[in-house]
């Protein structure tokens, strides 16, 4: 969290890391050049591939947007499949198919959430090309979403959707480790769409979405309660996501008073992590809940979020997909 704060400014600590950022930038540039001139080859798949990724590290909302888009296209008659890296998954074999009841510590927490929220086939693995080929061999999909993977250039893509945090944007605009960027800011000039999580500076011209929550779901019983039932109440708020303050701020918007418990993204929870001294309700993200059901008592709840897309983005995405498909 302290490092993420530094990435919003340029201080002496950032200055010390700047030489490493220059080296990282050279590696990024060289690798991209190798693909551009054909020294490294991309693998073209027989169906359209849509990358939902970003140029920064830290949570920007890629997974909720992927869920939204996959469900939207299913509703329009498509048969989407989803691939992901399975980050921090401990499986000894890759790629792996993911189901609603898969072990998140084997295949990753976000892929399990993707399977639960979309019902789409999900296959994960560090090699996204291998994951995609297995998915297409096992399931009759006519379009693929890659949750993250914008920098996985070996996988040829039809469309790129870059997701940005409307508040943090590109931070201090420096590459790792002095800043949050995986690639230079100019990389955004090459993507098909930029979509902001939160209201951007120019909402009338930029694509953006917000995250809304209506209810809390009990981890043990699946009982559902309106989130407003917790308004005015103190709770233990647990978030092991890329940017935990987003979850805490969401709770405050609904009048909840969170005692903040921020963990690193994809945290491996233990019972002691959730053994709080005060007996208050525990509210956590849905992503954390897939790993915590056996670690909590009956007063622990997760808060599912829904994407509210504030433009005709899906129509524009499909129009762009149609143009590219006819070339």
Describe this protein's structure.
- With 327 residues, the protein is an alpha/beta fold.
- It folds into two domains: 6-209 and 310-325, P-loop containing nucleotide triphosphate hydrolases (Rossmann fold), CATH 3.40.50; 214-304.
- It is 30% helix and 21% strand.
- It contains nine helices and 15 strands.
- The protein has helices at 2-6, 12-36, 62-75, 104-107, 109-118, 128-138, 244-253, 286-292, 313-325, and strands at residues 49-53, 80-84, 96-98, 122-124, 143-147, 159-165, 193-197, 207-212, 215-218, 224-226, 234-239, 257-262, 282-285, 300-303, 306-309.
- The chain has a nine-stranded mixed beta sheet, sandwiched between helices. It has a six-stranded mixed beta sheet with strand order 10-9-14-13-11-12.
- Strand 11 (234-239), helix 7 and strand 12 form a beta-alpha-beta unit.
- Helix 3 (62-75) packs parallel to helix 5 (109-118) and helix 5 (109-118) crosses helix 8 (286-292).
- The longest helix is centred in the N-terminal third of the chain and has 25 residues, at 12-36.
- It is globular and about 60 Å long.
- The termini are far apart.
- The mean pLDDT is 94.
